[in-house]
Each structure stands twice: as C-alpha cells, then as structure tokens.
C-alpha cells in the first residue's frame, strides 16, 4: 500500500519537555485510530499533522497536497446559526453564496440536523454541536478528516450517532485519522491502530491483531487496564 503521509523523525519539544519523540511512521490505511494513555501525545500528534503545531525536529512528507479538516472534543461554534457555522469555511474558500447555502444545507441534512439550520449554534446541545462540527468539516469535502476524541463528551446514543456519521464520511471517500478512549469505537472504525506512549510511537498494527495479539508489552498492559 502506498503511504499518503510519512513522518520522519518527527519531534516536538516544549519548554524542554519532549512531547513527541522521534516519531517515524507511514500512513497507508484509510482509517487510522491513535490509541494511548492520557498525556501520551495523541492530540499533539494530530495537531502536528493538521499543521496547528510546527515540529521542532524531523518532517512530515505528504505524498501530495491533501485537503484536511479537523474536529475536536469540544466543538467551537461561532456566535451565529448552525447553518452559518457550516457555511463559513466554504465562503472562505471562495464558493458563491448560493452554492454555500446549498452545500451547507446538504451537510446538515447528512448529519440529521436540517431542521435546526436557523438555530443559534451555541444553544444546541453538545451532541448537536458536535454534529454541526462534523457537517462543517464534511461540507469542505476533505480528503483527510482528523478527529480528536470526537465523542468524549457525548452520551452513548450521541456517540453512536457521531460514529455513524464518521463512517459515512469515510464511505464518501475521506481518510480518517482519529483518537478515542473508547476501544469498542476504535475497533469498529479503524483499519490500523497506532499506539503511542509517553511521546513515542510504540506500534502500528492492523486493528484485529492489535486487539487480539498486540505486539508490545506496553500495548498489552494498556489493553489489560482498559478492558475489565
Ligand atoms: N504546549 C505545551 N507545553 C508543555 N507541555 C505540553 C504542551 N502541550 C502538551 N503538553 C504535554 O504533552 C503531553 C502530551 O499531551 P497531549 O495532549 O498530546 O496528550 P494526549 O495523548 O492527547 O492525552 P489525552 O488522552 O489526555 O487527551 C502531556 O503531558 C501534556 O501535558
Ligand atoms: Mg488528547
């Protein structure tokens, strides 16, 4: 499989602390889930890949330029309607107002929120806001969608709904790179698991193998702690 992204000796140091340490990794799978304990560096790795942080060592090698969108644990809504939140990024990309509106409405419909288009986004529930965030990302038709614990603040039903939407976005052609502490969710979504611990890439393993026969002791310990 052809890697669409290679990390080569990627590092990030902040205030003398190494947060990401010499990470070398090839991304070839279409759906990758990054797992690891709290503070392992998962969010930092995703932010480096999305270009929100600049590496202090090494480099990211993209096979080709790729349009990206990122969704966070707590959605950041502009102080306007749900629809305007979805449209905003499209407008920035220079699409005509009419096309923006049409694509925005379509994206909201895909996440089941068409009827809330004119509601102030910040008054929506957490689960609804997360779906608006997904619609906003989806409307950009990204080739790569990065999600950092997109369901961590949601109840089980909203979580499953967001998971379904992520599946639909993947089916529409986007590559998925995400983190979660929900191992069931990781298993349902991922093709590949990247396991990181204390800033180091510990292993990259096909999903079923990771959950049945993780290669490293660190991953075995992680799974044993998490599964009762
Ligand atoms: N700007 C910064 N300056 C100093 N330390 C930082 C900075 N950003 C993150 N860290 C530290 O780097 C480590 C990794 O943080 P990160 O948020 O990437 O972890 P994580 O794997 O996403 O954890 P969680 O599962 O809790 O979300 C943590 O110890 C964090 O405190
Ligand atoms: Mg995190």
Describe the structure.
- With 228 residues, the chain is α/β, with parallel strands linked by helices.
- It folds into two domains: 154 residues, P-loop containing nucleotide triphosphate hydrolases (Rossmann fold, 3-Layer(aba) Sandwich); 63 residues, no CATH class.
- It is 38% helix and 26% strand.
- The protein has a six-stranded mixed β-sheet with strand order 5-6-7-3-8-9, with helices on both faces.
- The relative contact order is 0.18.
- The model has no long low-confidence stretch (mean pLDDT 96).
- Bound molecules: adenosine-5'-triphosphate and magnesium ion (MG).
Q: In a few lines, what is going on in this structure?
A:
The protein is α/β, with parallel strands linked by helices and 228 residues long. Helix content is 38%, strand content 26%.
């Amino acid at each position: 499989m052809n890697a669409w992204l290679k990390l080569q000796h990627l590092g990030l140091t902040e205030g003398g602390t190494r947060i990401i340490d010499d990470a070398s990794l090839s991304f070839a799978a279409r759906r990758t889930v990054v797992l690891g304990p709290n503070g392992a560096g998962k969010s930092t790795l995703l932010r480096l890949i999305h270009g929100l942080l600049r590496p202090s060592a090494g480099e990211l090698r993209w096979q080709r330029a790729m349009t990206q969108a990122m969704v966070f644990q707590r959605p950041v809504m502009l102080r306007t309607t749900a629809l305007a939140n979805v449209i905003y990024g499209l407008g920035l990309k220079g699409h005509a107002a009419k096309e923006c509106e049409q694509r925005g409405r379509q994206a909201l419909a895909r996440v089941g929120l068409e009827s809330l288009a004119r509601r102030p986004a910040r008054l929506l529930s957490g689960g609804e806001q997360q779906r608006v965030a997904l619609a906003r990302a989806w409307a950009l038709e990204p080739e790569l969608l990065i999600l950092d614990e997109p369901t961590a603040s949601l109840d089980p039903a909203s979580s499953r709904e967001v998971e379904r939407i992520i599946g639909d976005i993947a089916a529409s052609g986007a590559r998925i790179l995400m983190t979660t502490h929900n191992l069931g969710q990781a298993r349902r979504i991922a093709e590949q698991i990247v396991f990181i611990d204390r800033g180091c890439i510990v292993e990259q393993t096909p999903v079923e193998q990771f959950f049945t026969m993780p290669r490293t002791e660190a991953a075995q310990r992680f799974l044993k702690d998490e599964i009762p």
